[in-house]
């Protein structure tokens, strides 16, 4: 069996939240894009906006988040890192790092209102 390198290392993400409506409002505000309710899965879900069906995306769903700051970190595309950091705190989240510059862009670590670890990233 040969090794196949996938086009995208990540193909989908799921973020467990305790309050679906609060999380939809939070993530819509932080990313600047609405989340869309979807049916057909095993749980109610709201999907993050993405440019096309082949774009990597994900959703929020009613679930049990990891203890604050201990789960995996999902980095979300935003227009401007500093502006997104302001939207994080204005909508009940917490900014936990300064802006970090890397060759691919800039980001900051944050927590959503449930303590899920997220990054706000701009290329």
TrEMBL record:
Gene3D superfamilies, alphabetized: 2,3-Dihydroxybiphenyl 1,2-Dioxygenase, domain 1 (3.10.180.10)
VOC domain span: 9-123
InterPro entries found in the cross-reference section: Anthracycline_SecMetBiosynth, Glyas_Bleomycin-R_OHBP_Dase, Glyas_Fos-R_dOase_dom, VOC_core
Protein name in the entry: VOC domain-containing protein
Organism of provenance: Mesorhizobium australicum
């Amino acid at each position: 069996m040969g090794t196949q390198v996938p086009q995208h290392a990540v193909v989908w993400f799921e973020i467990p939240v305790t309050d679906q409506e609060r999380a939809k409002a939070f993530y819509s505000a932080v990313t600047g894009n609405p989340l869309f309710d979807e049916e057909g899965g095993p749980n109610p879900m709201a999907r993050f906006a993405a440019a096309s069906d082949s774009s990597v995306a994900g959703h929020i769903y009613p679930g049990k988040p990891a203890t604050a700051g201990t789960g995996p970190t999902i980095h979300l595309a935003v227009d401007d890192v500093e502006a997104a950091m302001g939207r994080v705190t204005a909508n009940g989240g917490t900014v936990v790092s300064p802006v970090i510059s890397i060759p691919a862009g800039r980001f900051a670590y944050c927590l959503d209102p449930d303590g899920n670890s997220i990054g706000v990233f701009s290329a």
